[in-house]
Write a structure and sequence with these properties.
Elements (H helix, E strand, L loop, with lengths): L1 H21 L3 H4 L4 H25 L1 H11 L14 H18 L3 H19 L6 H7 L6 H7 L4 H4 L9 H5 L27 H6 L18 H4 L1
Helix pairs in contact: 1-5, 3-4, 3-5
């Protein structure tokens, strides 16, 4: 994961340096500066990252690579680093587009990458926070229980909670789901539940094989009334 980050980050930095030299991008054209520029930049990056995550679930070609992340059978902080190199390569093109469109500078790129790495580690972690505390956190940022629902084997639940940092985007686009307790969630993708298929070589090859239907080994589609 570290090696892949180091391999793709220079493309983002190069794009940000080009933006700084040419003054292209929305924030440059609107002459937004100082702390306001930093805040607006981070908000815009997080908002458009929501759409990238959404597209990874809705476009079959992108899902082939994102599926490697979701097939993890045990959700913990290591899941935050379980991304296929193909997905990271494709996301780099998207991130470069974000930088060009909004006019993001190099320090903001580095800060945002640090933030999303930290937040991903947090909301994938197998932490059981006090319920009252997590409810307060969820008013603003994504927390473990919320993202745990996103990793459910039930399709409706997987297709919810796409946010990375702020919960606002899921609220605005009505993809927020908080009505499942952590104990109700079965983690993973229903058709990839054989532990022997979780080897590194299998995960790397996964996008290049025919994708399986969203069904359990029994042939059933997982539904909430089946699992409760």
């Amino acid at each position: 994961m570290i090696l892949m980050r180091l391999a793709f980050l220079p493309f983002e930095i190069g794009a940000a340096e080009f933006v700084s030299h040419t003054n292209i991008g929305l924030l440059n054209w609107l002459h937004v500066d100082g702390i306001l520029r930093l805040i607006v930049s981070l908000v815009l990056l997080d908002y458009t990252l929501y759409f990238w995550h959404f597209l990874n679930h809705k476009i079959p070609f992108l899902w082939r690579f994102h599926n490697a992340h979701h097939t993890d059978l045990d959700l913990d902080a290591s899941t935050a680093s379980r991304f296929h190199f193909g997905e990271l390569a494709l996301s780099t093109f998207y991130r470069v587009a974000q930088i060009f469109v909004f006019g993001i500078d190099v320090p903001t790129v580095l800060l945002f990458e640090t933030c999303i790495t930290g937040f991903a580690l947090f909301h994938h972690a197998n932490l059981r926070l006090p319920l009252w505390l997590e409810r307060q956190i969820l008013k603003v940022i994504v927390a473990p229980r919320m993202h745990g629902i996103h990793h459910s084997i039930i399709r409706e639940e997987t297709d919810s909670n796409f946010g990375t940092i702020l919960t606002l985007w899921d609220r605005v686009h009505r993809t927020l789901m908080l009505t499942r307790s952590q104990d109700e969630i079965t983690i993973g993708v229903p058709s990839y539940r054989v532990f022997s298929e979780q080897r590194l070589i299998d995960i790397l090859a996964m996008p290049f094989h025919r994708q399986r239907e969203w069904i359990l080994p029994t042939g059933e589609i997982p539904q909430r009334n089946q699992l409760s």
